[in-house]
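Section handout 9: paired folding examples.
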Amino acid sequence: MEETVSRNFIEQEIDKDLAEGVYDHVQTRFPPEPNGYLHIGHAKSILLNYGLAEEYGGKFNMRFDDTNPTKEKTEFVESILTDVKWLGADFEDRLFFASDYFPIMYEKALLLIRKGKAFVCDLTADEIREYRGDFRTPGRESPYRNRSVEENLRLFEEMKEGKYPDGSKVLRGKIDMASPNINMRDPVLYRVAHQSHHNTGDKWCIYPMYDFAHPIEDAVEHVTHSICTLEFEDHRPLYDWVVRECEFENPPRQIEFAKLYLTNVVTGKRYIKKLVEDGIVDGWDDPRLVSIAALRRRGYTPESIRMFVDLVGVAKANSSVDYALLEYCIREDLKLKRPRMMAILDPVKLVIDNYPEGQTEELEVPNNLENPELGSRMVTFGRELYIEREDFMENPPRKYFRLFPGNEVRLMSAYFVTCTSCEKDADGRVTVVHATYDPATKSGSGFAERKVKGTIHWVYAGSAKQVECRLYENIVDEEKGKLNEDGTLNLNPNSLTVLKNCYVEPALAEAKAYDSFQFVRNGYFCADCKDSAPGAPVFNRIVSLKSSFKLPK
């Protein structure tokens, strides 16, 4: 019996179009505007569009919707290309720019004018808004709506030639000022903007509006299914009007899906831009953000993001997803792939008084107990070690099974040690913990005379390397909510903790950018791609080891 595969609503629509012969192939695209860095929501759109093309043996285009030169930068173009390639969405040689189609868009605008479907309007932006009306009030026709075709052609040509200042004239579609869909009330198709463009320079001083340009771009590229988010649902009649009136054969079809929202996460470009400008984060790729560049820098993998997008699924209704699901996905991806190394984030020295001074030995340590294929490594052991400060308490509470005077614990992959005493500084802070070891308890020796309840990790002080580690929390205060009453972000003052005196196994000092590891009991960490130097990596904590999050059944 064949297993029934559940198909999302977009796949069902594509199946229907192919079965009915509406299209004989599938062509999708990802069309970002290069006015900022992509975030996790864009990852869903990239992987959805690419996945559909792959599923149906079709093609996937990468296209920049670069029709607004006031906000666009080459920096954003380059960052977006890096993100799309990193996620594994292969557009092959199909990299396009909307600005490459400006001549076609201009010709289509002339076609609309000749057909009596577009006119040059002298109303200001505020006047256009006023004339448009609202959901209760029908719009009023512009006094310039009935200009002759000849006059409109002349004025539009003069707009192109730069004879009019910004805001003085626009080209509008002539549709229906009484339409219940406000988008259809004679929308603006072109505006005057004396702006230099990152791709076309100063060749143009009129630029098409998104709602006019986007359907033309799709049609020119023979896109079959224009997959976009729900806020464009009300724009679909205008999309269809443009491709129909511009007389494209076999025009594309727009289908909308729900955006991806994460709880208590900042994705708005204006908020991130302000965080960057105010120096609260160190750029669009600060690991506390959820831009794709930030997630990559923090140590997330393409596989983990693909898993996340698959688990979220494709829906017709907007909803929010718990950030913990994203953390679940990176843990699942890394737990069997990465070696488990010993690193001490808040060190205190442990001296084993009965271990011979000057003596060291090499102990075999498995790289990942859950995945024997990762093998093992040799780690130096000696008289003086570093352990985590929280692994010693002079006066512990009940059920504390780590080091305290008189208690015995296992040093991971090494020996049993019994705490004997501690030293403190003038402020009462513990500086050294003393212990003795039992030579008969070496790990792997088969010793089974007694059991201990606590196991702690360590690094040998004689060869440990000092590194910086960064611990991250959500950049917004989750308890108080994302926004203050005045609309500003409610920031978490503890979103970044920098630990400069961490000690790690010497092999970790050779970590290169994006190398990731599990630090035993402390979480998964990744070598920072910006601030690491050869032999001196800076480690970002990707995610802690444990969470109360449970995957929904």
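Moving on to protein 2 of 2.
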Amino acid sequence: MKQTTVIIAAALSTVCAAAQTQPTDSVPAQELHEIVIKASKVIRKSDMDVYHPSQSAVENSNNGMQLLDNLMIPTLSVNDALSSITAAGQQVQVRINGRTATIDNVRALLPETIRRVEWIDNPGLRYGGASYVLNFIVDNPTAGGSLQLSAAPALNVAFGNYMADVKLNFGRSQFEIGNRFKLTNKVKAHREYSETFTYPDGSSLSRDESPLGGSIDNTQNSLWASYNYVRPDTTVFIAEFGMWSNMRNKTRYNGLLSLSDGSDNISLTDMSGYEGSTPSLSLYLQQHFAHRQMLVVDFSTSLYIGKSFSDYIERNPVTADYLNNIHTNIHDRNQAYAIEADYIKKWNNSRLTAGASYRAKRNRSKYESLSGEVYHQRQDKVYFFAEYYQRFGHWTATAGIGAQYTDYLFRESDRGSHSWSARPQATITYSLNSNHNFRLNFTSWQSTPSLEETNVVAQQIDGFQWRVGNQNLKTANSYMLTFRYGFSLPRVNGTFGVRAFTSPNAITPLRYWEGDRLINSYENSRGLRNLSFFLAPQIEIVPEWLNLSGYLQYRMERMKGTGYAINHNGWSGNAQMQLSHWNFMLTAEYQYSQRDLWGETITSSEDVNIITLTYNWKNWQFGAGVIMPFGNYDQSSRSLNKWNRNEQHMRMNMRMPFVQIAWSPQWGRQKQSANKLINADASTDRSTAGGR
């Protein structure tokens, strides 16, 4: 999946997060009163849906990811085996007690400590442009220590997930250390690729690639350690250290090219990837003051040291002579720093939240394939916001405004850009009665040009194509209006909605001929517009035994850029069924991925199906399953560009039977995990080398 990724109504979620320092799940005195719709599994609030795990869901879970899967939240697609959480084809921002977290952090949660899960499908200004937010509210464990060990290896390929995590408590202090290892080593894959180049004079050349095998590596290791001091309703301090390492991320394809002009066939090897490590540090302080006021400050920093590489080799299959031999190696040493501060003031029926943040990135890239030339890029972003929440009768409303200043500069060329952008957002909710509510939300956000999109160093992709960034790119604006109707009926609850989106100057790819080179660059396009209709139900067929949830979306979109205007419509969705009894749980999941139009290319992530059977006994969990028992794995893309029209399918040996075993003992008396309301984003950039 392609990620990407920066939106307004954090009012209510701030209050909920502020209440998380309470040692129980009871509602604290300072929490705002609110009209809620109560169902058997979900409470619908003005800006979120709240899910309380049932006893059976907890008993049939060994970690936070499994519990989330067992909640069967409509719209969500949770895949523990592939370590992914998505919604409507988009990445979900995960938080624990209000602070940004990773899937590894979620996996390290003890199911019995998760009091509720907040599903926010219209995130506010504090969430930095996230499409969806999932917030785990973690309460006091009953033990003074806990250990989690798990392993889930595949049986037929070198693929699997392994994790260990331990938590210890001393007075008001808590220590945690954990490690996760993900193995993907030389898993067989191949590519089917066809393309047609059209030259400015109208002539064309087609090349069809017949696959001759290939493989994918994606082995990662992550280590985390944290210390927190919690004095409820007074002070929270958190220090976190992490080390993420991508030991090897490499894709290699072998093929035989046949050309439409009658030339001899060409033997092809196309390989690209990256490897590197990212240490990170975060310091967090939350201080309560009199008159229901709070100040929250977070600082974080990270450093990426690694390399990106690509090899594109064309040979005569008979003589083995090189026709094209292209190597790209980029060494990065990129730093990021961020600091954020929020002020929160609450009254009985209203709340004011104001905040400011500063994020800085300093990128240094050394191009070994260009005689060791070094290039530097500086990125700075300043953001201010304020928002106000008010409840009146059956209505609740939140309104806010953010202002963002962005600036980036290339040292060697002394070229760059800077701009101010406004980020308004508003939400209004009406609760008709205890079973129905309606919510209208408007949001906006900005996307700054990435390192790859602005890098003007020419990189050769193949015998025809080169990649060159554009330093004249401007920050892109996006706007979204969403109407949702939430309903709760006997054994059925869910959401129906309509969403309109536009990005009038979206940053998209641009292709053009420059002599005999086809340049792949970027532009501020003439815009993307789409309209989506979606339905997300959850059905209790047999309560506590058999449940079904799903998400169905139909989207119509239109993209315009230099020399093109493309319309695209399509369905997407997912479905999950769970059957549980006698400590056994059988789960079947299916995901039909969203086909995304961006620029002149339509891409799809994987269509996945998986079946899993687990059994829980005391502190142990045993399981077995199959990834992709039906159908063939396929990631595809189709370019409609007039100069290079192509279609690509990446197929992989994903029919993987696997087993899993986990052990989670607890002991003594454990302290509450820290409550972190904000998290300053200090993620680093990474260069991209070659690759078609």
